[in-house]
Amino acid sequence: MKILVLNPNTSATMSAEIDAAARAAAGPGTEILTTQPNFGSVAIDSAAESYLSAVGVMDIVAAQLASGTFDADAVVLAGFGEHGKDALQEMLEVPVLDITESAAHVAQLIGRRFSVVTTLARSIAPIEDRLLLAGLAAHCASVRACGLGTAELDADPAGAVKAIVAEAERAVMQDGADVICLGCAGMAGVTGAITDALGVPAVDGVAAAVGLAQMLVGLDLSTSKAGAYAPGPDNVRTYWPLSKALGL
Amino acid sequence: MKILVLNPNTSATMSAEIDAAARAAAGPGTEILTTQPNFGSVAIDSAAESYLSAVGVMDIVAAQLASGTFDADAVVLAGFGEHGKDALQEMLEVPVLDITESAAHVAQLIGRRFSVVTTLARSIAPIEDRLLLAGLAAHCASVRACGLGTAELDADPAGAVKAIVAEAERAVMQDGADVICLGCAGMAGVTGAITDALGVPAVDGVAAAVGLAQMLVGLDLSTSKAGAYAPGPDNVRTYWPLSKALGL
Amino acid sequence: MKILVLNPNTSATMSAEIDAAARAAAGPGTEILTTQPNFGSVAIDSAAESYLSAVGVMDIVAAQLASGTFDADAVVLAGFGEHGKDALQEMLEVPVLDITESAAHVAQLIGRRFSVVTTLARSIAPIEDRLLLAGLAAHCASVRACGLGTAELDADPAGAVKAIVAEAERAVMQDGADVICLGCAGMAGVTGAITDALGVPAVDGVAAAVGLAQMLVGLDLSTSKAGAYAPGPDNVRTYWPLSKALGL
Amino acid sequence: MKILVLNPNTSATMSAEIDAAARAAAGPGTEILTTQPNFGSVAIDSAAESYLSAVGVMDIVAAQLASGTFDADAVVLAGFGEHGKDALQEMLEVPVLDITESAAHVAQLIGRRFSVVTTLARSIAPIEDRLLLAGLAAHCASVRACGLGTAELDADPAGAVKAIVAEAERAVMQDGADVICLGCAGMAGVTGAITDALGVPAVDGVAAAVGLAQMLVGLDLSTSKAGAYAPGPDNVRTYWPLSKALGL
Amino acid sequence: MKILVLNPNTSATMSAEIDAAARAAAGPGTEILTTQPNFGSVAIDSAAESYLSAVGVMDIVAAQLASGTFDADAVVLAGFGEHGKDALQEMLEVPVLDITESAAHVAQLIGRRFSVVTTLARSIAPIEDRLLLAGLAAHCASVRACGLGTAELDADPAGAVKAIVAEAERAVMQDGADVICLGCAGMAGVTGAITDALGVPAVDGVAAAVGLAQMLVGLDLSTSKAGAYAPGPDNVRTYWPLSKALGL
Amino acid sequence: MKILVLNPNTSATMSAEIDAAARAAAGPGTEILTTQPNFGSVAIDSAAESYLSAVGVMDIVAAQLASGTFDADAVVLAGFGEHGKDALQEMLEVPVLDITESAAHVAQLIGRRFSVVTTLARSIAPIEDRLLLAGLAAHCASVRACGLGTAELDADPAGAVKAIVAEAERAVMQDGADVICLGCAGMAGVTGAITDALGVPAVDGVAAAVGLAQMLVGLDLSTSKAGAYAPGPDNVRTYWPLSKALGL
């Protein structure tokens, strides 16, 4: 099967990291296709950038649908805490998996209370919002931030792992978490470091989403079109898809 | 004071109706400036269009900020159930009022349980989501839809009023609402019709938001920049503002 | 317009402070009339005193209604955490604003999570109860007490401000509040001190209630009489209004 | 042991009915002393009357404490949905039982979901509020009203029983209740009629409160004075107790 | 009246302690009959042992019912946090009281927020689950563990009391509890020690359940058979009752 | 990989149906081993039978562990609404999937609100309890029963499908569900019938659990042993495993 993985930011480095994580999680016979928006922000650290990224991934899919080049059995939206999953579910017939929700679902299958460890403190609120709206907040012990932004994570990977493990330890000791969800995409080796140091399972959202996508495709299940995710009416839009209007 | 009212869709007709409602609610000395996105959808009936509209209103504000032409004491986002308020709060120092939340706040001040009556059934879920995230769901008796889309409302205003009043009556009789919030923007005369027919107050979100904007400006209060609405980091963005990249 | 402000305790000093706060918040053309019960308690620090104060403010209004001297476009109940708002809403056609709820509504418009800082620890429970019943608990980060009673606040205003700012800092740092509501009435200058020290907006309930009262009157909205706040049946009462029976 | 039963309204007929219900529930060796306020309302059908009744029962207890005539091992507040329990808990060392909460506690011990059937629809909201504040809402299937006021109940007892049983049947069939709480005080024979007709247990609040009072006294347990129910500070009050000031 | 007290583990020492606690709480004329399963675990410190204990107490009752020797007016299930109450309610016509729920009900009657202090940390989760399912979580401030297992409690009773009082103090000071529930069965003297040291009431579940059982029998109330606790269909079972199949 | 599927009742017919459903959902290379308890009930229609079934599946696993014959990469507990998953998680290192929770997780991935359609009305309460404890109740629109017991389902499969589809239709039309979970195990063809008739996806718990088990094994994730599911202390047990004591 083919899984289209959408990195919602415009960083090619991040896309490569997400692609590697997705490939590592994919089973035999699963093809991973990772891409990123044609416009937007190199990192997503605000509500504004989150909306921009949602339109960016919608634009990729709309352009593929318009040109008849969309060809995937499932789609993974690889932004932790970002908007856009419901829009993709409206636009597509195949399953759409979001890495925030996927990590939380998998965490609940293997533990009683999970915590999310993300990058900057300002990402806590949107992650809490996503979990609340997805009906996945009841067993969330906490959403915590290690205090390092994307640039810092890239500049000092070893230091970043240390900071994330330290925050995960607080989640386990102070908040009672028995599973940790990694609250960002594309960091290799962190889940292993958490488990080695703390003895708790750690869930990477990209891996979880790829695993769940394979599961849904295997069971021949896809998004219900009888409710919130039915396609919308055919309203007139201008400059859409934006990438085409921009000549990209 | 000046209030910038943002219609999130691209319909000039709707902008005119919203503008009229805002002017009717404004106090003496308040200037209303209503505008609409340079790209997007003529009506907002899906999650995809809601995200597109959020980026559309962000684009208006970003372009004004970039050109030094932003000049308002408060901003009203006039989409019922639409995304984008938090992004505008991040971008601006002045208060930002959303008509969904504004209607709900005002309803709670004058009643015990409110219902929202919106257009199409597919708008119920996003309105419920906005109220839940805003912490305003506890006294919401129901969100109901009259079943008529924007085009139908425009084509037969008298029939539309009748359908909305009928749905509001169900909210009062079956769900126990004692206040009705009108779940769309720009419909003149509907709140009066509801109150005349059912004897309950009816709240128009545009009027509520204008009133609350004036209140906040009068009390010299604005969005806290110490938490979720602090400005984000200065990430590199491409093709932003989109309207400038599009040459609009 | 005229706003009747009801201090629920019998302290003339407190009435004067509340009156000053209300006048400072009032717009041009708004007349503030502040009064206090004819019997009751000089401060309200218990459930018993809260009920007594509710009957005290009901008595003022009942006496004015009986004598035909009630003349206000809105009423503000200026007790933080005190009972009585719903009774006044039943008795009156004009809007009734409670300072606890008003502060919370305004806080939610300008922030994501608010904390209340009140006087004594024993006031925390009734404030939590008021917020829960009003459907305003979901975004309340905490209700905290500075540990000083009314007498101490009056005796050492500078020390009181310091204690309140210190407690507000804990709310911001430990509980994640980005807005502070001042949990008592009549303290001049505290909101400014909080904002200066902590960089977060601070909301005074009296100012919030006056602002919201003006907003409702401006929008021609008042309490719904179709539900919980309909006038009750005409039951026989003895010694009512109590102040008349007492010969006051 | 002696149990002081406080009817919060001024109806001697109602006091007699409550007294009979309490006596019927009392064990051997339990003495029931029923009384009513010296001022207030003959029936309690509004928030205003509920506050007045709270002050009325506080006044009885304050006068007894002041004169040294208080002599009871427990107190029962016999108003369904009325305010005042917490004030009495502050004032007294002995246990205070409220019939609303007592009925709900007993119902949860013998069933999975209970409904309350009260008199007028306007009593539903305050009963819901009492249950929510008492932490007893989670297993409440519904609060329903039979539509008859106190006067009507008295005028046609047989018709009243029929109406209450019919409403209880809706609670069982439509809301899934397996226990019914009688939402008013002083009606003989109704619980038996409900059980006979519907095969579900029915709980009378007065009986439940007397039973729980005996239980607490038997276990030598009383209200915690270490938290919300500690006595308040010794604030100056005027015209208190009101009955003394009124010369009653 | 006769109360059958079921210790869910197989420790005769524990049964004796529970029996003593039940007798101390029983009124004149109440006969206490304490027993324990014929198979199972000597202590219950896991979900597995909790299910085994539920079947153990079901087996006792089933065997008595089969042999016609069941003779009790009420049953008390004396395991704190253990499963089984609903099964016994299905099997029996007389009231069944669980000590976890009984302690919580009594605590809510005498305080605003209660904490449970149990033995090992691993018992916290099942106690939280029982309270949540029973609709008794809203006023639970915390469930805490003193860190000592059953064997340690028995080996050093004085040290155990000290550890429990220390944990109860944290519940009062840090979590705001004003009542403590003792989260295990059969420890003499601990409730007195808590009250002496901290000035808050402490509730022993066995005493609470015996008191509530007497109350229900006194009011002639028992489990509703119209809902969840109706007897199940007559399905074929093998090796049931297990004790008979085991030849015990 | 090998998946051990545990039918919690003693019906060989049901085991065969569950086995077929599991095999149909298994991927290539997955071996399904289905078994059932050595004692217990032929169907599970009460809390008592649910506890008995939990001990029955524990007994299977304990006997395999004791004899060194346990050989599976994951375990599926195939009882809808039954107890026991947490006990198996304590006992085992490999992942344990429960069909109730698995169905709900999968439903949330493909829809906004799901309903469960089960057999008898008395199964509704335990299913609601499982979902609440698992933190999966927020998006559950309803749990409904078709009114047919296991025997009736077996006797008239065509009629059973019709009744289940009719109840599912009520869930969609009245409760707003856009996904249906089949609330029992072992019924072939029902999910297809629901989707054909109503146009909504239908989830079979056995298939969902097998799919999720394969996903977890594929991602090398298993139950956290750092919290609630750590193995319990080594308490003395008598007659355990029961099947060995029974000579089975």
UniProtKB/TrEMBL annotation, chains A, B, C, D, E, F:
GO molecular function terms listed in the Swiss-Prot or TrEMBL record: amino-acid racemase activity
Gene3D superfamilies in the record: 3.40.50.12500
Family: Belongs to the HyuE racemase family.
PANTHER family reported for this sequence: PROTEIN DCG1
Name used for this protein in its record: Asp/Glu/hydantoin racemase
Pfam family, one: Asp_Glu_race
Source species, domain of life: Bacteria
